[in-house]
Structures are given as C-alpha cells and as structure tokens.
Hints:
Elements: H1 2-11, H2 13-31, H3 43-52, H4 55-75, H5 86-181, H6 184-192, E1 198-210, H7 212-217, H8 221-241, E2 244-250, E3 253-258, H9 267-284, E4 290-305, E5 311-315, H10 317-327, E6 334-337, H11 338-344, E7 348-357, H12 364-379, H13 384-396, H14 400-413, H15 418-436, E8 445-454, H16 466-471, H17 475-478, H18 487-490, H19 498-512, H20 517-529, H21 539-542, H22 550-557, H23 559-569, H24 575-582, H25 605-620, H26 631-643, H27 649-659
Parallel strand pairs: 4-6
Antiparallel strand pairs: 1-3, 1-4, 2-3, 4-5, 6-8, 7-8
Helix pairs in contact: 2-3, 2-4, 3-4, 3-5, 4-5, 8-9, 12-13, 13-14, 13-15, 14-15, 19-20, 19-25, 20-24, 20-25, 23-24, 24-25, 25-26, 26-27
Amino acid sequence: MMEDLKYLLVKYFEHFFVLLILAAATLLNYFVRYKIAFLNFYFLPIILAAYYLGRKRAMLGALLSITIVLIYVLWYPEVFVSANSNGEIYVHLSIWGGFLILAGAVVGSLQENLNKQISNARLLNQQLEQSQSELNHSNALLRDSNQNLENRVQERTLELQQSKLAVENLKTKVENALYSTMDSTVVNLMIEGRLRNEKRPMSVMFVDLVGFTSYSENIQPENVVADLNQYLQDMEPIILAYHGHIDKYMGDGIMCEFGAPQEFAQHRLMSVICGWKMQKALTEHSHPWQMRVGIASGSAIAGLIGSRRQTYTAIGNIVNLAARLEQNCTPGRILVDRYTHEEIQAFFETRKLRDLSTRKDLDLAKEQELFELGLKLSEQPDCAELHYQLGMIHLQIQEPIEALSYFENALKLDPKNDQFKIAYAEAGLSVKEHDNISVKGKRKRVEAFEVLGMKDPLMDTKKIPQALYDQYNYIGDLINIPDDITLPSEVLDGSVGQSRVVAALSFILADNLGLSEVEKMDTLQAGFLAHLGKELISPSLRNRRGGLTYNEFEVTQQHTEESCRLMRKMGYNNPSVLNLVKYRHEHYKARSGYPGELKGDDIPMGSRIIAVAAAYDALTSWRPYRDSWERHAALGEISREVEKGIFDPTVVAVLIKVIT
C-alpha cells in the first residue's frame, strides 16, 4: 500500500506541487491574518520541487509563488501593511522573492548534480555488475577448467603411475626370469651394458653325481626332481659364496666358472675350496650319491653365446680338460690340473695321479688299467714292476714318450732286469719313429692331481714350532666358530687359515701374559673374527703386489669398523670382543698427527695381542703375490716395529719367547 502511494507521489509530483502551491497561496492569503509572517512557508514546496523536479521547475515554482503573492499584494495591499512603509514591503518582498528563487536554484543544482552522480553511480554500478557478472562467469569457467585440469592431471598421473607400476612389475618379472636362468652378476652387467666377450684367465669346474641315473630309474619322477632340487639348493649357496658363475645344469651335473664374468686373481684357489666345501656339504646333508669334481685353469673365451636365446658361457681347451678331469675323478674327490695345483698346494694335501689323455678316441679298457696301476704306484712308488706295466700299456696305445719314462724308472729300481732293458730299447726306437712321422691328432697327456684335504694351518712348523703346537693342540677345539664365516673372504687374497692362526696365537700370547680364562676366550674369538671386515676392501687392492697409496692404506684401516658391524649382524654382541676388534689397529705409541683414539696401556690388552699375532701371521704366511718370511726374520721385523711405537714391547717379548 505504502509502496504504491510512494510510487504515485513520485510519478505525479509536479501536479501535486502546482496544486500545493495554489492551495497554500489561497489558504495563506485568504485565511492567515499575518501574511508577511508566513511568506517563508513557500520555501518548503520550492525546496521539495528543487529536489524532486529539478532546478528549472523549482525556479518556475518560485516565480509562480511570487506572482500569486504579488497579485495578493496588489489586490489586497492592506493585508500586507505593517508599521513599515509600502516601500519597505516591496523591498521585503523583493529580498524574500530573490532568496526564494536562489533557494530553488541552489537546491535544484544540488539535486541535478546529485542525480547526475547517482546516474553515473548507477551506470558505474551497472558496468560493475556487468563486469562482476563477466568476472563471475570467467571465474566459473576458470574453476571448471581448473577442475577439469586437475581431473585430467590426476587421471594422467594415475595413468603414469599405473604405467610405471606395470613397467616395474614387468622389469621385476624380467629380472626374476633372468636371475632364475642366469647368474645375477651376468644380469647386472648386461643391464649396465658392461658385459664383454673376452679372453681371460679363469678356472672351470665340472661337478657330476655318481649313481644318479640308476637311482632315478627306481624312484618316482616327482621324487627325483625334489631330491635333485634339494641337492642343488645345498650346492648353489656354496658356489655363490665363492663367487662362482653357474654356467649351466646338465641333468645332475653343474658347470661353473671362477674369475668370469667378475675378475678374481685367486680364481684357482676359489674354485678348489668351493669344490671341497661342496663335497663336505654332500656328506653332511646325507645325500644318497657321491660326487666327482674336475677343475682346470687357464685362458678361455667368455661371453654371451647364442642368437635369440643367449647364455653366458666359456669356450676353450680348459673347458674340455675340466670335463675330462671330472670323468676320471674318484667319487668323493677333486681332480685338478697342474696349473691349478701350483696355487693350491700350499693349502691342500694332494697327490699326483697318472697323466690323462686329452684325445677323444680313447681305449677305455687301457685307460682304466692305467688308472688302477697309477693308484697302486702312488702307494708303492718303488715298485719296478708297476713302472714296467705302466710303460707297456703306454707303448701299446702308441705313447712311447710316456712309456720310455716309466721304463727308465723301472731300470733305475732294477738295473739288471733284461726284460726292462728290452722294453726300454723298444720304446726308444718308437720315439724316433714318432719324431720322424707327423701323426695327426697325436695323443697328449696332462698332469692330474687329486685333492685329498685341506692342510691345518696350525701344523705349519715353519710358522709355529712343533713343541708349541703340541703344548696347545687343544686350541683348535676351542674355536667353535665355523670357518664358513671367514673362508669366503680369506680366499679372495689367498690368506686361507689366517683367522685360525691369529686366533690360536692370540690365545697362546694371552695365556703366557697371565690373562684370565674369560679374557683368553674373548681374545681367541676376537682374533678369529678380526679380519672379517676385509670384505670392504676390493679384491684387486687386497692382491696388490706393490705398495699402497695413502688413501688406499686408509681404506684398508677401515675394515675394523666393518668387522664390528658384521659381527653384530651375525649376533656376536659381546662388548668386550667388539672392543678388542675395534682397537686392534691402534699404535701403542701414537705418532704425531696419528688419528688414533687410544694409545699405550689404554688400548685393551687383547687388541695389542691380536695386532702382534696378525702381523706375525701375515709375514710368515705364503701369499700368491709373495713368498713367506722365515720366522726369525719375521720376529726381527716385528721388533723393529716396536721401536717405531707400533706394537706393545711386552707382547712382542712374549711372542719371541714362545716362538723361539
């Protein structure tokens, strides 16, 4: 209701204004007695007209009001007469009228300016609203675009993650497939692009089970496969522990390379110790077979062989020789060639067997006779008849040079035997004929050595006097730590037996220094595990023939911390033993600038003992890259190290006493 009334009033205000002026003039001039006093009333409609109708209409309204009042003045002047004169009335009316017009003009101008500002503001508001609308629309589009972009990014990210996961899964599957068919080292070298075909020195090992074929014929197939897998499960960790590359499985046979694809200077020693451990594992796990092991060393070509399906393998004479040695090996033993024997003889008990033929067209019956007679000869080397019989068989299979050698040995043992003389003469004539006639595929024989067992390093009388060993021969039983912990590391630089010797010498020195039983056992255990951290040092650095640079020497000194870390990992958490290992490289008298943590008597006695024992063992032990020192020369060198402040003189004095 009120809104409608307001709307009508604003819309028809001009009409209302004129009526208001006329009504006000009529009422005021007719009914009001004092007209002059009410002249200011006209300001009210004029101001309203100026606000609502504008300046022009307000001024016209003012003129209308003046005209009406003036007409009343002219028509009824007496009603406007006061104490003043008529002239004053007209002056008063003039001033009143001027102000009335001025009020209408000023208020009208203000109203027009206000309307203009309001109009401009309304226009600006409209523009602002339009801009705001456009901005809101743009923001909405931007939000939609951002939302779509985020969704697309999330979708793309999810696709990439799924793609990456699929690639990783595929990579894992491929790697697992490769690892299941190829050696992990070969796979890693292939992935890194560092696998090369090359000729290099290595050792090749063939392993075969005796009696497996006949065993498998009487057993269900699934049981045969299960037994074979169990056998391989026992053998594979040993091969990998000694860095052997499993070339292939041939039924119940295994072919391995040592020194390829990774190069190891001590590949001959690694292969034989690996074969020896495999023979022991076969017995310990009570497998129902015996095993033959043949090992040959030398140069061979190694690399990837094949077109689409490739395999890393070795090719060369030593491969055939290793296979031949395995075929001629006594079950339960290891047969090696001469080149392999040269390196392992310091660590293994061996015996030379008859020379083996490398030709394929063998007379197996004659070869068996040679084998049996060779075994008898190894037991009876002074039996002339055995030498004669071996010579006759070699002569029959057209090997006059070998026959001549055996006949010569027979004559040395029995010079008056005419039968030996005739056979020697026939062999000599046959040798001359073979020298004059080129025979294609002439038979060639190689030396073969049978590995009987590992030597006990404590029984080396060049290092430990026999009397001292006899006094402390029970120490070996006190060392209850399996050598499988230290042997894979020792074999890399040819220091086989180091842990046992250092442990035994440390116990002997601790006993002579009057240490308690607990301290002696801690020293024994720490001495055995002291060199465990040598795995941190690269094999090439450990086999260096020349001197070491300062940085290389610093690397070698860090292996004590590594030894402690590995000991903790394996469960050896005795703080006393760990401290003995940790401080065994500390110098007794610290040099100027030497970063040692302890010195003098602050170094645990067990650490000082192990340092001296390890130094003596290192000097008196044979290494593939140098000969051993004579023990008195080694003691002299250690005494000079005392003068330099490296070793405790009390411990060295006890060592000299017990060794000499």
